[in-house]
Amino acid sequence: xxxxxxxxxxxxxxxxxxxxxxxxxxxxxxxxxxxxxxxxxxxxxxxxxxxxxxxxxxxxxxxxxxxxxxxxxxxxxxxxxxxxxxxxxxxxxxxxxxxxxxxxxxxxxxxxxxxxxxxxxxxxxxxxxxxxxxxxxxxxxxxxxxxxxxxxxxxxxxxxxxxxxxxxxxxxxxxxxxxxxxxxxxxxxxxxxxxxxxxxxxxxxxxxxxxxxxxxxxxxxxxxxxxxxxxxxxxxxxxxxxxxxxxxxxxxxxxxxxxxxxxxxxxxxxxxxxxxxxxxxxxxxxxxxxxxxxxxxxxxxxxxxxxxxxxxxxxxxxxxxxxxxxxxxxxxxxxxxxxxxxxxxxxxxxxxxxxxxxxxxxxxxxxxxxxxxxxxxxxxxxxxxxxxxxxxxxxxxxxxxxxxxxxxxxxxxxxxxxxxxxxxxxxxxxxxxxxxxxxxxxxxxxxxxxxxxxxxxxxxxxxxxxxxxxxxxxxxxxxxxxxxxxxxxxxxxxxxxxxxxxxxxxxxxxxxxx
Amino acid sequence: xxxxxxxxxxxxxxxxxxxxxxxxxxxxxxxxxxxxxxxxxxxxxxxxxxxxxxxxxxxxxxxxxxxxxxxxxxxxxxxxxxxxxxxxxxxxxxxxxxxxxxxxxxxxxxxxxxxxxxxxxxxxxxxxxxxxxxxxxxxxxxxxxxxxxx
Lengths: 514, 150
Hints:
The complex is a heterodimer. By secondary structure, chain A is mostly helical. Chain A has one domain. Helices cover 73% and strands 2% of the residues of chain A. Chain A is built from 20 helices and 2 strands. Chain A is globular. The mean pLDDT of chain A is 90. In chain B, α2 (25-45) runs antiparallel to α3 (68-99). Chain B folds into 2 domains: 2-108, no CATH class; 109-150. Chain B starts with a helix and ends with a helix. Chain B is built from 4 helices and no strands. Chains A and B meet through α5 and α6 of A and α2, α3 and α4 of B.
């Protein structure tokens, strides 16, 4: 039993209270501790990924209780990859917060940030359905604090909506878990997988209800239409770097869909009978449509990016609903790419909107260092809309290729291609308004009120590092596409190898159950 | 007993959903509390309902027992929903104080000023007000001290 598996949960969980109680008045100390924690988390994540590369499913039994009775953490290629993605995003976002001084605009940023990491890593690692609920709550309660970081009237209102929406989602999650427990008598994922497969079709009503309820909960997290409406309000009113960190939150929903609907309610389960693909394909189509049209119609920069995120979740959901190893491999690649793309754009939006004083999509006075912002937006837009040469193009290509043999191939291709076109138009429109039509001379300008309250701090290299890192990661996704897709293929194959997951958790070799 | 438990869950859920759909913070908080009660009772019943039964296996094997796992789940769910309700109340108080009303809807403004700039301006105003009232208080103190002949 390798104790490092629980380190991504333990480390932030210990660090956060120390930062909150001991270092709350000393920003330098808090920053140092938080940064050290994030670096250590990244190192651990790299180590765990190397560990997971051997292809076996590593199981951590909490308190050494045997599997269906105690809680287990499970490390395989998928969860290792997600933890690594989280830690990279966390490092970049933390750097940006510190370089721009945004972490001092409200209290307890670093403690909340660490709690957020604890929740996200825990959700990726856990092998127990109820424990997944607990980690969801941990990451949500931290995200409530991060979302209203800095305060303000509009942000508090948006935060309130976000909390209410997620509390309703949590209640649904508990109803789903209760139904699942009533039908199977267990909540361990591996045990559930075994029990659900043994249920004949005629007794499957309760399990099917639980499966669809759970899908709805994860769809809320992944912002799939029609339960997406919390996302634009939340992302566009949160501090932009926090929105960049939240790029991983929709992926938690996508991860949960992948994990639960391959392992527990996989395509081979009699009781489910292809129900999930039937539900996910229309949801993906609508999500892509809403995302693309929303990005085209948005009147502000931040909502436009939020709708682009929704659109990318639609593409991702198409790949997931393929439910084949090839489609899953494409989904994983696109998931990593869309996280980086969203983060890059939100970090850029932070710098641009703070310098303009607002984020309205109207021609205004141009900001200082106008050229570099334009160039970065161009690169970010290329990534987000899926144009070559950045990884969005390869991601979409993989997704299109993976759904080619499905019955709903026409729908998926039309939705993805037309959706991409509309998103490109939306980004072109936003870019030309924000950067091309910007005026040079602020004298006597009606927008002088915005300029007066805008951020005049010099734009130095540190503030741009985070955006360049995200673009560099996307370039690396292309440059190292071969080894990365080999890893993704292996991860996808492992996801569908349900038997060895169950064996590894429930009947570990060489250990006698006490 | 099944009938009572089932209808309790149903009534609580219906009331909760109705209240959550109101557009004011207070009914929404009460509604979410009702929903969490409903789900707690529901979780409790997932281990099958049994009266007068201990939550442990009897050594004679044949005696009935009540499933202890849902009870542990309910305990966790109660703690979490309690904490969440507290957070929700705090955030809605914050939102109420900022906006002077407890409506839930976001007012769609053409280009709302960046929330943070607004907050900073507010904080500065408040600090100025606090300074003013402090100096007033100081002046009053001095007056009082003069009156005492110190």
